[in-house]
Amino acid sequence: METFGVWIAAILTLFIFSFLYKENPFYRFAEHLLVGVSAGYIIPYTYYNVFVPYAWNPIINKHEYILILPAIIGVFYIFRFSRKLSWLSRYPIAFSMGIVGMYVPLTMQANVLVQMRSAMLPLTNINTILIFIGTVSILLYFFFSKAHKGLYGKFTSIGIWFMMIGFGSAFGYTVMARISLLIGRIQFLLKDWLHLMK
Amino acid sequence: MNFFERMQNLDRRYIFILVAVAVILPLIFPLGLPTYPTPPVESMFQHIDAASNRKDKAILMSIAHDPSTMPELYPMEISMLRHCFERNIKVFLIGFFPQAAAIAEMALKEVLEDYPDKSAGVDYCNFGFKPSAIMIPIILGMGDDISKAIETDAQGNKLENLPIMQNIKNYDNIQMVVEFSGGSFGGVWITYARAKFGVDVGCGITAVIAAQTYPYLQTGQLKGSLGGLKGAAEYEKLVDIFAKPQKTFSRKKLTDKQYLKQFPLSKTTYKYKKARIGMDAQAVVHIMIIVFIILGNIGYFVMKGQKK
């Protein structure tokens, strides 16, 4: 059975790779199969692992009737598809937005305040000096109420260099990520399917 | 049409063939290029290793990705589980996406083949799938009581009845939360679990988002990070040379050739060196891409000069 699965996976991998040559029916078949299988997997999985344990069982078996209220509000999302009743879907959205508000202080603490504090270090070594110049020059680059000319313009162009280095490192990592995915598939084909690797 | 004009107009399918060859050959004929662990990976290893043989500490692995990112993240998960089992570290797994729960199950099954003495509910516990919609309430709830926030494991057993939960109450007993993800670097854990309860957070991530982790590593909000296939390869090596032979981490030993000779790659099972084998191909392709970029630029300037 495992061998059968490996063969199916290998053939579908080759179907997907065939797109590199040109668009073809084999690629489209594999692509549509992926979409169908994903949806087919998610729907019953969600039903048995979300709806049953978090709504059906508590309400029907444990008689926690208070849960009917959030369940009904949740169902309102479906009315997005009705022109006449789509206004009902605003209630669960409004409720979700209210919850987001609750998380703002923690988000500010972790993503803004702590990060800002680390950018305000004494200029005692080359790293902190670079962080200082990079942060200030990039912030000034995005300050558009003053024309980027003269000495000010030259300083903001340093910000561009810092950003370019950042983009370069991100691009390098992206290349590595994409090649890693290819390596993963080739390892599967060579090792599990063709047994060419030790 | 001269050489550079041909290069500029080269059918991209020739490039695809060259990339495929550059990947396939090093995989069939390994080059055995060395792997050098970087500080974020060392830090992650040391943090987890500090929980060795402790009954009151556990590692929580949050699997938050689907099969599309498995080539990069799965070797990390396998290595971390191996590390925990080698060093008698309690380990929890949780998946907030349906596919993630299946990946956690698969990783456990694969590593347990080599650790038949490890039991579910005693040495490890798979919390199974929990809906992402209640991820934040679960994360916040675990700060008070993990058993109450999670309630049951993947098999439906009550968490409070499991032996593994003895001496484990809340984040005070979690040595580190490690999120494996292709789209975030533990941001939710940093924001809600670290900011509110002070738990240490690490991440295993795809290389695409690895650059974003550095500001958080600098502030200490991330205690360690494994970035892409390279991060996985580095962690594999650390487990091989320190955790497996029951040695404490030492930076000196990392450069000691005599010490490293004791752990040749050929002696390691394939699943525990998959990332390191992949890095050979990665290196060859990177060199090829660098050559292409240089050639492309030379061609651009030569043609620009000819036009003038």
Can you describe this structure?
The complex is a heterodimer of chains A (198) and B (308). With 198 residues, chain A is mainly alpha-helical. Chain A has a domain at 123-198. Chain A has helices at 2-17, 25-61, 68-75, 90-118, 126-141, 150-193. In chain A, helix 1 packs across helix 2 (25-61) and helix 5 packs across helix 6 (150-193). The longest helix of chain A has 44 residues, at 150-193. The model of chain A has no long low-confidence stretch (mean pLDDT 93). A six-stranded parallel β-sheet of chain B has the order 3-2-1-4-5-6, sandwiched between helices. Chain B has two domains: 3-30 and 280-307; 39-272, 3-Layer(aba) Sandwich (Rossmann fold), CATH 3.40.50. With 308 residues, chain B is of the alpha/beta class. The chains are: A mainly alpha (198), B alpha/beta (308).
Low-confidence stretches of chain A are: none
Q: Would you identify the regions of chain B where 5 or more consecutive residues have pLDDT less than 50?
A: none
Beta-strand content estimate of chain A: under 5%
Please work out how many helical segments of chain A DSSP would assign. 6
Largest interface: A-B, 41 and 52 residues
Radius of gyration computed on alpha carbons of chain A:
27 Å
Strand order of the largest sheet of chain B: 3-2-1-4-5-6
Q: Can you give the mean pLDDT of chain A? A: 93
Portion of residues in helices of chain B? 40-55%
Instruction: Characterize the biggest β-sheet of chain B.
Output: 6 strands, parallel
Using the CA coordinates, give the radius of gyration of chain B. Answer: 22 Å
**What kind of sheet is the major sheet of chain A?**
none
Strand content of chain B: 5-15%
Say what oligomer this is: heterodimer
How far apart are the termini of chain B?
17 Å
| Number of E-type strands of chain B | 6
CA-based shape of chain B = globular
Derived structural class of chain B: alpha/beta
User: How many helix segments of chain B?
Assistant: 13
Highest-level CATH class of the largest domain in chain B: Alpha Beta
SSE run of chain B: HHHEHEHEHHEHEHEHHHH
